[in-house]
């Protein structure tokens, strides 16, 4: 497992929170659709939005088989 760290400071969402939300998502076909699902589950990127790109990168990496 990758080192756990805070990705979204506004909502206190960690890498593990995002990875868990991706794993629990049945739609692995599209990064943006998965982002929307992850956002609904974790509330990440709903504060200042500064983590938007980081969250997208994490989701993309996970969907492409990166170590969780």
What does this structure look like?
This protein is mainly alpha-helical and 68 residues long. The protein has helices spanning 15-23, 31-42, 52-63; strands at 6-8, 13-14. It has one domain (6-63): BFD-like [2Fe-2S]-binding domain (Arc Repressor Mutant, subunit A, Orthogonal Bundle), CATH 1.10.10.1100. The protein has a two-stranded antiparallel sheet. The longest helix is centred in the middle third of the chain and has 12 residues, at 31-42. The termini are close together. The model has no long low-confidence stretch (mean pLDDT 89).
Q: Which features does this protein show?
A:
two-stranded antiparallel sheet; single chain; 3 helices; Arc Repressor Mutant, subunit A; mainly alpha; 49% helix; 68 residues
What would you report as the Rg, rounded to the nearest angstrom?
11 Å
Strand content: 5-15%
Sheet with the most strands, sense and barrel status: 2 strands, antiparallel
- Total individual domains: 1
| Helical run tally | 3
Quick one: overall form?
A: globular
- Relative helix content: 40-55%
Arrangement of strands in the largest sheet: 1-2
Low-confidence stretches: none
Q: What structural class do the secondary elements suggest?
A: mainly alpha
Task: Indicate the CATH class.
Answer: Mainly Alpha
The CATH superfamily title: BFD-like [2Fe-2S]-binding domain
The average pLDDT score comes to 89
Query: How far from one another are the termini?
Result: 5 Å
CATH topology: Arc Repressor Mutant, subunit A
Tally of extended strands?
Answer: 2
CATH architecture: Orthogonal Bundle
The sequence of SSEs as H and E is EEHHH
